[in-house]
Amino acid sequence: MIQFNNVSKTYPNGTIGLRNINLTIEEGELVVIVGSSGAGKSTLLRSINRLHDITDGEIQVDGKSITRANDRELRRMRRDIGMIFQSFNLIKRNTVLNNVLSGRVAYHSTLRTMFGMFPREDIELSLHALERVNIREKAYIRADQLSGGQQQRVSIARALAQEAKIILADEPVASLDPLTTRQVMDDLQRINQDMKITTIINLHFIDLAREYATRIIGLRAGEVVFDGPPEEATDEVFAEIYGRSIRHDEMLGGEV
Ligand SMILES: Nc1ncnc2c1ncn2[C@@H]1O[C@H](COP(=O)(O)OP(=O)(O)OP(=O)(O)O)[C@@H](O)[C@H]1O
């Protein structure tokens, strides 16, 4: 469970990122966060694993304050939180398997991982993670030889190898074509359902949000202006979240 209690974030230059957010996200939810550019989606997502520090309030993950965690506690808490980025964040010259194995780094000493000395169980866990996203056969190929969609799957496998209980995905499909987009969203949804991993995804496609979310949270100027099931997120609701009518480029389109 993730809890936001009166959370606000003001950036050092005075820009307000989040305003008094109160939210409880339960285990196993697939939450999609929507809102126009600058609404605070990234700030909200990245405050959960403290990639961004908040300036007011508190965030708790499974009952423990990540806001007040010291360095050691923070490292321990981050181990349970996988992160997926728009740009995949892979080491391109390394093999797919080594990239997935990097999800195990937090479980071992720096020296051990520096020399790539991962135990056999980690290799098996990583190969199994690749199997879950259907690219087991790519394990020994260099990451930069994969398509964008395949690279994003590697980053999902890395989060699985990490044995994350929570996955945060910041615009995970923004650099992908429509077909690949759906495949990656299907992977995230399947993993969420099969493994009960709480998943929070920032998306800018409205139809994808409706199709995949179990809950949609709408942000506007750093505030939660909608929080409900996808059935309630009508075009009118989206227009309110965005402060204007929906644009064509905010729909992915294609088959549903
Ligand atoms: N490092 C920073 N310093 C100052 N202001 C920032 C910083 N990062 C973000 N902001 C501002 O905080 C607000 C929220 O930004 P955020 O990136 O969270 O929005 P977003 O909804 O994710 O936008 P987008 O869809 O464009 O990625 C915006 O006004 C943005 O300009």
UniProtKB/TrEMBL annotation:
SMART domains: AAA. PROSITE patterns: ABC_TRANSPORTER_1, ABC_TRANSPORTER_2. GO terms for cellular component: membrane. SUPFAM superfamilies: P-loop containing nucleoside triphosphate hydrolases. The keyword Cell membrane applies. GO terms for molecular function: ABC-type phosphonate transporter activity; ATP binding; ATP hydrolysis activity. The keyword Translocase applies. Residues 2-246 form the ABC transporter domain. Transmembrane segments: none annotated. Keywords: ATP-binding, Cell membrane, Membrane, Nucleotide-binding, Phosphonate transport, Translocase, Transport. InterPro entries: AAA+_ATPase, ABC_transporter-like_ATP-bd, ABC_transporter-like_CS, ABC_transpr_PhnC, MetN_ABC_transporter-like, P-loop_NTPase. PANTHER family: AMINO ACID IMPORT ATP-BINDING PROTEIN (PTHR43166), PHOSPHONATES IMPORT ATP-BINDING PROTEIN PHNC (PTHR43166:SF6). This is Phosphonate ABC transporter ATP-binding protein. It comes from Paenibacillus selenitireducens.
